[in-house]
Write a structure and sequence with these properties.
By secondary structure, this protein is an alpha+beta fold. The chain is 68% helix and 14% strand. It has a two-stranded antiparallel sheet with strand order 1-2. Strands 3-4 form a two-stranded antiparallel ribbon. It comes from Clavelina lepadiformis.
Length: 168
């Protein structure tokens, strides 16, 4: 047993590795695991959530602008009759419907509520709502850029801890 310990000690001395550097390597490995965990679980998860929120805002803006275009086209044609339309019942199932009062439209205002608005009121509401949503998208885009910068900083820190060169 004593010979084995002495041989182990001699091996460490010959290779230039001492117990202090082994402890430092273990601490570095633990820090690398902590940073990788933070990167994968926290930062990338937050990035995915905020990107999904921003994509939802883009979708909502698109729907409002599509409605605004339809309303403006109907106003320019001076046509107040929409005898037959298709209504989305959900899950992309459509049914034919007849519009009894084409002078007003129902606009989704949020939280599952709809308002019956005239064309001019609807256009005014859509303009304000899209302006608000564009501000939300701008803020979310700034948040996404900040998270991407944090991810890059953590990756560079990991490379520095592991003494790796940046290959990207």
């Amino acid at each position: 047993m004593f010979k084995f310990c002495f041989a182990s000690l001699q091996w460490f001395c010959n290779t230039g590795i001492d117990l202090l550097s082994i402890r430092q390597m273990q601490e570095v490995d633990q820090k690398v695991l902590q940073y990788e965990s933070f990167l994968n679980e926290t930062l990338r998860g937050d990035l995915q959530k905020i990107t999904t929120l921003r994509d939802g805002c883009y979708e909502e803006i698109s729907q409002y602008l599509q409605l605004k275009t339809i309303i403006e086209n109907s106003l320019s044609k001076q046509e107040n009759s929409f005898p037959h339309v298709q209504v989305d019942l959900g899950c992309n199932f459509y049914a034919k419907a007849v519009v009894t009062d084409p002078s007003k439209v129902f606009v989704r205002v949020g939280y599952g509520f709809f308002l019956e608005l005239t064309y001019s009121e609807a256009i005014s509401f859509i303009t304000k709502k899209t302006k608000y949503l564009n501000n939300v998208v701008e803020n979310l885009s700034k948040d996404i850029a900040a998270i991407r910068a944090q991810i890059r900083m953590v990756i560079e820190g990991l490379c520095e801890l592991q003494n790796l060169n940046d290959t990207s």
